[in-house]
Description:
The complex is a heterodimer of chains A (299) and B (406).
Chain A: H1 2-32, H2 39-56, H3 65-91, H4 99-121, E1 126-127, E2 136-139, E3 142-145, H5 146-168, H6 170-180, H7 182-187, H8 192-217, E4 220-221, H9 227-240, H10 245-265, H11 271-285
Antiparallel strand pairs in A: 1-4, 2-3
Helix pairs in contact in A: 1-5, 1-8, 1-9, 1-10, 2-3, 2-4, 2-8, 2-9, 3-8, 5-6, 5-8, 6-8, 9-10, 9-11, 10-11
Chain B: H1 16-26, E1 36-43, H2 50-69, E2 77-84, H3 89-101, E3 108-109, H4 114-127, E4 131-133, H5 140-143, E5 148-150, H6 155-169, E6 174-180, H7 184-200, E7 203-210, H8 218-226, E8 231-233, H9 238-250, E9 257-259, H10 267-272, E10 279-283, H11 292-305, H12 311-333, H13 335-341, H14 350-364, E11 369-371, E12 374-378, E13 384-385, E14 388-394, E15 397-404
Parallel strand pairs in B: 1-2, 1-3, 3-4, 4-5, 6-7, 6-8, 8-9, 9-10
Antiparallel strand pairs in B: 10-14, 11-12, 12-13, 14-15
Helix pairs in contact in B: 2-12, 3-4, 6-7, 12-13, 12-14, 13-14
Amino acid sequence: MQEFLQQLVNGVAWGSIYSLIALGYTMVYGVLRLINFAHGDVYMVGAYAGLFSALWLRAGTEPSLGKALLVLLFAMAVCALLGVVIERAAYRPVRRHPRLTSLITAIGVSLLLENLGIVVFGARPRAFPEIVRSQRLELGSIVIGSHQFLVLGVALILMLLLQLIVHRTRIGKAMRAVSFNADAARLMGIPTDSVIAFTFALGSALAAAAGVLVGLYLPRVDPLMGLIPGLKAFVAAVLGGIGNIPGAMVGGLVMGIAETMVVAYLAPTYRDAIAFALLILILLFRPTGLLGKREVEKV
Amino acid sequence: MRFLIQPTVGGAGWCAGVALLFVAVAGCGGGGNAEEVLIGGYMGLTGDVATFGEATQNGIVMAIDEINAAGGIGGKKLRVRIEDDQGRSEEAATVVRKLISQDGVIAVLGDIPSSNSLAAAPICQAAGVPMITPSSTNPKVTQTGDYIFRVCFIDDFQGTVMAKFAYEHKNIRKAAILRDVRSDYSVGLADYFISTFTKLGGTIVADQSYSRGDTEFRPQLTSLKGAKPEAIFVPGYYNDVGLIVRQARELGIEEPLLGGDGWDSPELFALGQESLRNTYFSNHYSTEDQSPAVQRFLQAYKARFNAVPDALAALGYDAAQFLAAGLRRLHEEDAAAFTKLAGAARAGDQGRAQARAKLRDLLAGIRGLEGVTGSISVDENRNAVKPAVVLAVKSSGYEYVTTIEP
């Protein structure tokens, strides 16, 4: 039982990383109906931005909370910018084209980022500096590593902030309006282009946060690290109901827990298979996802 | 989605054939001196394993020079001709064919990567030329035939070594395993660890696995922790081990972690940092070994090459000494046959082939040869039965702990 609870802690911490990445997928899908396959690679860039800023600030050798926060904010800022640039350069020109065009473009951007990563950062995996010293919090016999706590805590705070932005601010209202009906929103005077750019910035910043957290949590980064987590976070977004923000959070947590339990109680080799098994199941039995609403397709 | 993308390594060196021709011309009539015994060597002196090849070459050359300085064997000097195979197996086959048919070498030393040794071994076997690999650890290499020897232990042996270390030196009775199921190396080490450890009287309380490329090991480590082992054997490569150690310590696993020579990399320190406390792995040799053989080798190597010899240099040295030991015995037992090995080879020289066969038999009979990497005995599969060293990982580097006899 204790072991099960410990595994649950592992699963929740790991799942909250998927949640953060899944949020970016779901938000972009919400406003553009586009699956941004480059999102996993934005997460990779975020991890490297965190790595380099941590090295520059010497956050690994002389860690402090302020530096850790700076590293996180810097990575998020870099990726927010990257998200806007990607949207402007790659997706906006093809926005009026059939949806397949933007999908292929997304795959192209993904390949570009991965291979640029190999050229710029080198293919060799790198150790991420320990920007927050690891400590152990023991609750009875359950051990929660401070990094697990941190990952979960930061993820929750960011998700709360996101909810506030989406539901309590003007730009959030505009995002919801564009998501509901982009043409109508534009007719009502909402600057859809900037709203879409903002959505990309927001989603990419969350991916960057996930990248920094994963760097701290594992602690290793490499240029292809976004590949599998990106796919799994996409599955998590579909699982929760794509386009639905709380759904992405739930989907990510479900994925993390399912993966951990499969490794712990079945076979570690099925770790990657479980994600796609879940995807097939959800598409068969609840195509709108766990929290998704059924949309009536008007002909 | 994007699984097809791999960074491609540019193929280098198509001019190898040209270079070979040049060497062949230069090497015409090699070994012509009747007062010399010509030995061949092949290893990658350029290409991506160049540092391995250089270290091995240094070790070999140093051994040969020492033997000659001491008067050679039976009044004859040894001469070694080393060819660069660029670390590629097709080149390895080419240069070995050349060494045997053109230079008429009496034995061949090489290579480091098992794949290259596997490419050249059938050629040596067919020609009846003894081949001694310094550091190819794959068991298949010596299975090629009875002319193929090695002076290093095979992968499986390290599992046995760490089991003995855990049971006898650390007094561990309950051990757990965390193996990489996608690596033959890791699985082999784990299996031999288990069989030795249980034979000694210990229990394996948990056996978990991961796949190369995994980064999150907490689920496995949590399961292992629940089984309450006194030590965990992690026979992986440094990239994974660094993360495993970090995550294990964070989960409160303070028990010793054990591993094999796959841990041996500076990268391990960058990934593992202070979590590497209380971890041990097996290796071929340690510069901190205070035995006179090691210390003497260390001093001489440093004086000559201005570098600290790694395990490959030591194994290269031992491979040459191993061959020399065989030649010495041949000279003692059958001086006439030994004389046939000196000087130039003539085509269809039956006497020379018989002398090589005799040399092979004597090499197969070597027991307890004192080398830098320990006492070397040849088993029935022509693998070296020899001790391994156990190193403790410290923040400053490795620390010699003990030597484990087979």
